[in-house]
Write a structure and sequence with these properties.
single chain, 580 residues, Rossmann fold, 4 domains, 6-stranded parallel sheet, 42% helix, 16% strand, globular
Length: 580
């Protein structure tokens, strides 16, 4: 797309030809126009056609640009405001003084302060997950290493978080001086989708806007911008980019030939399964997915995901994927929507070798990378589900669908009913299922559960996660602890009318998450925090013991027991003025 924009700016193709070529590549007309608007200023800069300040200021027929003059901190604030950002998740930072000065006169930009950089990123991550929009976090230039755990989590979840820090003054950069490294950007290469060190003050808005665009364009991910402190204090003239000019629609429709082939494979399959992940939720595709599953009465399994991507109380919902599955067995077609294929090296079981594989998602990096794939579809998951449903309706009769509901649908419903009954039986004693089912009955119908515990399948089975019912946010795909408490703050700020519950294990809470109690108390954020205290890191203990080594043979828990001392978590809460 970037090369196509260059051809357009170089007058090698007309606007009509640009739209035609973009739609041929799979973009909708609206997406093509949006991409042109977003990429034009960036590509102009790359090819030396930077928009002049006069031109930007006199574009009365467009809201894409506006001219501003002020300190680097003021330009940063203006660009943040222009993107529609409301909350700035921040930690104390002397280098961010110019931004603080700018915010004095911009009360619409609200600071939410944390006392740990890692928790500031967690709050921003939770806010982005709850809104579906890019969030903003900033902190001291030396706070990056502390923040890296939740930058990693955001990268694994592809959460759109824009992160800005100050940087060593331009005249002292590269001398291994105070709070300096030879290459701060390289240190975060694995944790970010894109990184940049600003050099010219008049380009602060450009690079921050670019960070928002890259972060929020699917597949999303955190972006990282560093701005020298002296540049933040200096005065500059610059162009501010509007939110509309950097918004890129990714409603990419699938190739019709691929849809036709996938539909035929689904119709011919005797025992298919749908395996779903986070792109379903990100694309807003749950309803379309339910319609697809119900049409052919296909059972659905949930991948590891920060969301519940299919209604967990639906009769076609089986829970997590295992091999071999008790039902359906054998699987002859595995359709993977919006996530990586199951990785036997990290938990979920392998796909049966005899099963055909269809893999559909907008993030093409993993397509065909881990398993030989019979059909790969690069497209928005919601658009894919819709297109498949329409294709299936044209390829099979109503009588065929009715027969499938009567046979496959009834068999699946009978199996899931047995699963639910077995789970309820296990909940008769004071067990994990009993605790979670009781909690479900006590919470509001549309409560949001921000969970960071290791028993994810039990969480999914205990709460009715679905549109119009409860919502699941977490656990992260990254699995790095010290995320959930801060994330729950961001979720509550994004969804103030919903009851928000932070569900934590004692081990996860002890990973520095008392920091978030400070922010909860300062901003009076009403969150219910529940700590499941079994005095252990239960998940690592189980993983160690199941290998049958010396620890198991001697029944020695070497590193996972957390008792002695027994932590009084309610006392920790009271220290921050929170009742417990």
């Amino acid at each position: 797309m970037r090369d196509l924009v260059k051809d357009y700016l170089g007058k090698k193709v007309s606007r009509r030809s640009f739209i035609s070529k973009a739609t041929a590549a799979g973009f909708t007309v609206a997406a093509a126009r949006s991409s042109l608007g977003a990429l034009e200023p960036i590509v102009r800069a790359e090819v030396g056609q930077t928009v002049s300040l006069r031109d930007a200021a006199t574009q009365t027929n467009s809201l894409r640009y506006s001219l501003r003059q002020g300190t680097g901190g003021e330009l940063l604030a203006e660009q943040i405001r222009s993107t529609g950002t409301r909350f700035i998740f921040i930690c104390n930072s002397s280098g961010m003084g110019p931004l603080c000065d700018a915010l004095v006169d911009r009360p619409d930009l609200q600071l939410i302060q944390g006392v740990s950089e890692n928790q500031a990123v967690a709050m921003a991550d939770g806010y982005a997950k709850a809104t579906g929009q890019a969030s903003f976090a900033c902190f001291s230039r030396v706070g990056g290493p502390i923040a890296s755990a939740n930058m990693y989590n955001a990268m694994k979840d592809r959460t759109p978080v824009v992160i800005v820090t100050d940087h060593m003054d331009s005249q002292a950069d590269g001398r291994d001086g105070h709070e300096d490294l030879d290459d701060w950007l390289d240190a975060f290469k694995q944790y970010t989708k894109w990184r940049w060190l600003v050099k010219e003050g008049n380009r602060i808005p450009e690079w921050v806007a670019h960070a928002y665009k890259v972060s929020s364009t699917a597949p999303g991910g955190p972006t990282f911008v560093r701005i020298p402190r002296n540049v933040l204090y200096q005065n500059h003239k610059a162009v501010i980019f509007s939110r509309e000019s950097i918004s890129v629609s990714m409603d990419i429709t699938p190739n019709p030939k691929h849809i036709e082939r996938a539909a035929q494979m689904l119709i011919e399959a005797k025992s298919p399964i749908l395996h779903v992940g986070h792109e379903v939720t990100v694309s807003g595709g749950r309803a379309a997915l339910v319609e697809l599953a119900e049409l052919l009465s296909i059972p659905v399994t949930q991948a590891w995901s920060w969301a519940a991507d299919f209604p967990t109380d639906h009769p076609l919902y089986l829970g997590g994927y295992l091999d071999p599955m008790r039902f359906p067995d054998p699987i002859d077609l595995f359709m993977n929507l919006g996530t990586n294929l199951p990785d036997p090296g990290s938990g979920p079981s392998a796909i049966p070798q005899t099963a055909k594989i269809i893999h559909a998602r907008v993030d093409s990096r993993q397509l065909g990378a881990d398993y030989p794939t019979d059909l790969a579809i690069v497209a928005d998951v919601k658009e894919t589900a819709r297109a498949l449903t329409e294709a299936l309706k044209s390829m099979a009769t109503k009588e065929r669908f009715a027969t499938l509901r009567q046979t496959r649908g009834t068999a699946t419903r009978n199996f899931t009913d047995k699963l639910k009954q077995s789970y309820l039986t296990a909940a008769r004693n004071v067990t994990w299922p009993r605790l979670l089912l009781t909690l479900n009955e006590s919470l509001e119908e549309d409560a949001i559960i921000v969970e960071e515990v290791g028993t994810e399948d039990w969480i999914l089975r205990s709460f009715p996660f679905a549109d119009g019912k409860k919502t699941k946010v977490g656990r992260t795909l990254g699995r790095s602890l010290c995320w959930g408490m801060g994330a729950s703050i961001g979720v509550k700020l994004a969804r103030p009318d919903n009851q928000v519950v932070s569900l934590q294990g004692d081990g996860g809470f002890l990973f520095g998450q008392t920091d978030s109690l400070w922010a909860m108390s300062r901003y009076d954020v009403p969150i219910i925090t529940i700590i499941c205290n079994n005095r252990s890191y239960d998940e690592p203990r189980n993983n160690i013991m199941m290998k049958g080594g010396r620890s198991r043979q001697e029944n020695r828990d070497m590193i996972c027991y957390l008792g002695s001392p027994d932590v009084e978590f309610t006392h920790l809460a009271s220290a921050y003025g929170i009742r417990g």
